[in-house]
Amino acid sequence: MKGELYTLPFQGVDSLLNFRKRIKDRHMWVLFVLPGVLLLVLVLGFPAITSISYSIQAENKEIASYTFSHYVNLTKDPFFIRTFWNTGIFVFLSVAAHMVLGLAVAMVLNSALPAKPLFRIIALLPWVVPDVVAGIIWKWMYDPIYGALNDVLLKMGLINAPIEWLSNPNLALFSVILVNLWRGFPFVMLILLAGLQAIPQQLYEAAAIDGATKAQSFFHITIPGLKKMIVVALALDIVWEVRRFGLIQAMTHGGPGVLTEVLSTYTYKQYFQFFRFEYASAIAVIMTIVLLAASLPYIWMISQEE
Amino acid sequence: MKVTSYKLNDALFKTIIWIFLIVVTIYCLFPFAWMLSTSLKTESEAFRIPPTWIPLEPTGDSYIGIWVRKNFGIYFFNSTIISLATALLSTFFGALAGYGFSRFFFKGRRFLIGFFLATQMLPGVLLVGPYFKILSKVGLYDTRTGLIIAFLTICLPFSTWMMKGFIDKVPVELDQSAMVDGCSRMGIFFKIILPVVSPGMVATILFAFLLAWGDLLWALCLTSSEPMITVTLGIARTVGEFRIIWPMLMAGSLVGGMPAIILYVFLQRLLVQGLTAGAVKE
Question: What are the sequence ranges of the domains in chain B?
Fold first, then answer.
């Protein structure tokens, strides 16, 4: 389709005269793509490479030497190991919960329902506020004494004593994840809803005539029909949740101790509180590798289609 | 008999769906209601035990306080300028590159598309360190310009991808007929493509705007003085203060989140189209 432009057969003298123009047009992509590529290399590629080179430099600048000691030290740093697992738990639970709740809400909103646009907007709201703001609202919701959440639970008789949502060591990470579920599921819902709407209704009708149950149509029509959307939502959500910073920074600063510390807040601390640039860069590089690995299926899928 | 039990099941199913919807609605809205309610309270009422759900003596003082007693005016100005400049720059370069990727099939195209996609995945913390050092060296640390350059790293890959998706939907015959009429490539891009994809361009600008608006990490690392900081950083700093004035903080959060709320609600459809471009071919 798109390729036709320069394989069009010549259409008379006019085209013959345009022959030189036509050849040149093939190379015009440089003019369009290059500014963006150069800008990206300059503002992104260059700092990224600088960061990688920091990560293999010795902290002692007297001797300019290269070393992998930061990476070796990371494997022995109990805080880093804890942070790494925290991030894993945070991302896994957040994304899994986003998928389940997002799909459930999308399916409900895709069915015949009055006031659909209103519900759509309501279910979108948590996602649209900056994550710092989301973190702050919930920090105040969670306040053990003055917060709304304990008050509601006490009044409903579900708990007897106020819960220390963010300072109880066993609870803190899950309290943060609960907030992240709140702010992240609408994105998955939006994407999957778009996917659901693209599945032809006739498929379900045909299945029903053939005597398929609701569960069967779900697993044989809905899920396969959503496959691509699920890949997109999963990839973007995983990447965003691994990078999540403002929410945790606003709510807990990684505390109590390092119990809610994730890779991005830990790297930030190493950089700007302890000024260990080389060590921090090593963490960031590991994060980058994890992110690129996680998003490979998505990148592969998209570039295959191109 | 069978028919009635089926109908009963159906009614039960409907009830469950409605209960589910109501629970989700409360989950979504309750925190906002609590934010609004707190923002209208006096400071002493915010610290009442047990908390009041509806302010006893509602007051708008906090909404005045954030502009008068806090520097919210400056934060808003900074956030607006920075986000707008970032959005316009990244959408312009993104549209150019998007057109290139959409219309030309050159060697290395797939590689470059992969490169753009991969750059979307890089974590901000990989870049903030070098940025801090480089910007300090060239005197752009703690400036709006520095932050704009930094935000391009987040926004440009997204803008390119979104614009490519929108341009893909414009039939290539449009370009062809214009070329037959003797229009140059740049002419086609500016005079034909951009006007046709203008709704998509608006969506891209706004999405980039909101990406920049919502950021905390970069603002925290690359600015420090009161006249240069953004809304999100201003709010985050208030939380770090020794004595948090919650009604004012809630008012600030509500006002700071408002541009995002308004823009997203109006643009959700275009946004989904842009984000899933490539994944759904119509």
Answer: 2-61, 67-275
